[in-house]
Design brief:
The protein has 245 residues and is of the alpha/beta class. It has a single domain (5-239), classed as SGNH hydrolase (Rossmann fold, 3-Layer(aba) Sandwich), CATH 3.40.50.1110. 39% of the residues lie in helices and 16% in strands. It is built from eight helices and nine strands. The strands form three sheets. It has a five-stranded parallel sheet with strand order 4-1-5-6-7, sandwiched between helices. A two-stranded antiparallel ribbon has the order 2-3. Strand 6 (150-154), helix 6 and strand 7 (190-193) form a beta-alpha-beta unit. Helix 2 (35-47) packs parallel to helix 8, helix 3 packs parallel to helix 5 and helix 5 packs parallel to helix 6. The longest helix is centred in the last third of the chain and has 19 residues, at 221-239. Mean pLDDT is 93; it is low at 25-31.
């Protein structure tokens, strides 16, 4: 028997919508059948693979708090790294012993980026480009310590137009381009799934046609149904050594 390859998807609500796909938000309820998991079940059958994908809310609402921004990944995985959980959240030392691939993302509030002050602080929770870049560089350095584990990062989600200022949206685009053009390194163990380009189609905001409703920055059912297999196919490609970072 081939050894299973274990994949973990860390997310909150936007990720949950894509995870569920077309089985997602109906009359305000979330059904637990997953289009992403169904894709892998069929993919394994056809291709004689043993990819096992699961998902987890990260960080949990309690005790850490419902924040999954660059500071929080840095705080849990770099600043408080080690063999013991931090506020019940698993460090990379813990996760990489169990999983062959770790997928992580941020909520769309990551894009409400404030102007730089000229005094970047890696330990600051303030959402600014200068702080994000320090935290992302520290994360990359930490991730490179686990070369046998594959990591997949979602590019930042962005809100619909009426939930973010134009200035903040412009800064979010700058951060996205910095990730793609400067932070990303070819040949390492980090791969990028470009969620930003799917939901904006070149615009500054999540397009209204893709949202769950007026003023709602979560993915709608049709958009989630379309993206779920695209996301799953990307992950499968990376696991098979065909992905591009």
């Amino acid at each position: 028997m081939k050894k299973s390859k274990r994949i973990l998807f860390l997310h909150h609500s936007t990720g949950k919508s894509i995870w569920l796909g077309g089985t997602g938000r109906i009359s305000g309820k979330l059904f637990q059948k997953s289009d992403v998991r169904a894709f892998f079940r069929e993919y394994n059958r056809i291709n004689n693979k043993r990819f096992r994908i699961s998902e987890r809310k990260f960080p949990a609402l309690s005790p850490y708090g419902w924040n999954n921004y660059p500071y929080d990944y840095y705080n849990i995985w770099v600043k408080n790294a080690g063999e013991h959980p931090f506020m019940t959240e698993p460090t990379l030392e813990i996760l990489t012993r169990k999983y062959d691939c770790i997928i992580f993302k941020h909520c769309y509030d990551i894009s409400n980026i404030q102007p730089d002050t000229g005094y970047p602080d890696i330990n600051s929770e303030i959402k600014s480009l200068e702080n994000y870049k320090l935290q992302y560089d520290a994360l990359k350095e930490k991730i490179h310590n686990f070369p046998d584990t594959i990591f997949i990062l979602w590019t930042p989600a962005v809100p619909v137009r009426n939930q973010i200022s134009e200035d903040a949206a412009q800064r979010a685009r700058q951060f996205y381009r910095w990730i793609m053009d400067e932070w990303n390194e070819k040949g390492d163990n980090i791969y990028i799934w470009d969620f930003y380009s799917y939901e904006t189609e070149g615009e500054l905001y999540m397009l209204d046609k893709f949202s769950a409703g007026p003023g709602n920055s979560h993915p709608g059912k049709d958009f989630s149904k379309r993206l779920a297999p695209l996301f799953a196919e990307f992950v499968a490609g990376v696991m098979n050594g065909k992905g591009t970072n």
